[in-house]
Specification:
CATH class of the largest domain: Alpha Beta
Distance between the termini: 72 Å
Strand content: 15-25%
Helix content: 25-40%
Structural class: alpha/beta
Largest sheet: 11 strands, mixed
Number of helices: 15
CATH topology of the largest domain: Rossmann fold
CATH architecture of the largest domain: 3-Layer(aba) Sandwich
Amino acid sequence: MIAALSGRRQRRPIHGESRVKPVKVGICGLGTVGGGTFNVLQRNAEEIARRAGRGIQVAQIAMRSPNPNCQITGTAITHDVFEVASNPEIDIVIELIGGYTVARELVLKAIENGKHVVTANKALIAVHGNEIFAKAREKGVIVAFEAAVAGGIPVIKAIREGLSANRINWVAGIINGTGNFILTEMREKGRTFPDVLAEAQALGYAEADPTFDVEGIDAAHKLTILASIAFGIPLQFDKAYTEGISRLTTADVNYAEALGYRIKHLGVARSTPSGIELRVHPTLIPADRLIANVNGVMNAVMVNGDAVGSTLFYGAGAGMEPTASSVVADLVDVVRAMTSDPENRVPHLAFQPDALSAHPILPIDACESAYYLRIQAKDHPGVLAQVASILSARGINIESIMQKEAEEHDGLVPMILLTHRVVEQRIDDAIVALEALDDVVGKVVRIRVEQLN
């Protein structure tokens, strides 16, 4: 009898098998990231199913034109992204079309139809995330956005979940590869900004209109998201300070190097008793810091917590498959959580929605930093004493001074100063007074300095 019963036992499913139907997803946008996402899902289907607990099937793709890198034969195709959002067969919509307007309508329609959403759209989340997350909570669906920040680096998950025991003190990141490539070339090869920008455009690192990259807007989108999950505040992109790298010169890059610093286009979010600093700008970082040695198109994010100290997340910040890695990781997380109680899911912005803080975003003139100042002065005695007097009168302490020989072409003497940390309003006032001196010629160059220690 025992042997007979044993013979009728059902065999256990082997790895990759599942008794539940696969989750069906719709990809909207089959460009660089969309194509990478499709290929990773196809290539690693078995491995992904083992992690997620069930298969993930691309049931429909919305695209303007075919991607030659993708074999999509047998997959339903449409040119209308809203058809995907309305398709009753689709469980998860992957939004990879970019931009603010159509993407927002698509995501809200998908949510309204009870579908989960995965997106790599940092602009969408930074600008419309509060509205999108509120609608998602109302409908009990998930909006996942790991790929919106730093490409393949899982920094959102790390802050939101891995560092949840910590009070985050600050976040600082190189989160735009185009700008980092330009600054690396300027430092290593002595090239000018316009020259390197032209090459970045030729290589496809920068768009024909590079404004979002070189003026800090792209990085500010990402920093806005990082700050929200780090400090538990609503998304407030409109309050982020942005300053680009287009006015940097090779002279400043070289002077920084001589002082033991590297210039990086850095995003900084810091919690202070009076508010949150949220700023993107060129920054001098000590050359011995790991993040100062992140070069080319790579990204890196430092996170400082009260329990863990400083951590560094490094990797490819863009590209077809690095970004697809984060998109698919989000898919796996969504599939795992689909059947869970919405109240017990990881909150979109790390903190429970009713526990978000009203701690204000500080204006840039209320932020505190150290500063690099470059002054072009006439070769007259007493100029340095006048400069020191102006800074001292405003409570600005000088850390170091470097004075070069007079330039042959104009006879002006470059004076480079590093200050101690001070509220920016004092530096603003001092620069006005310095530029009013008869012996100071032109504008004073000001670059912020962060020690990140």
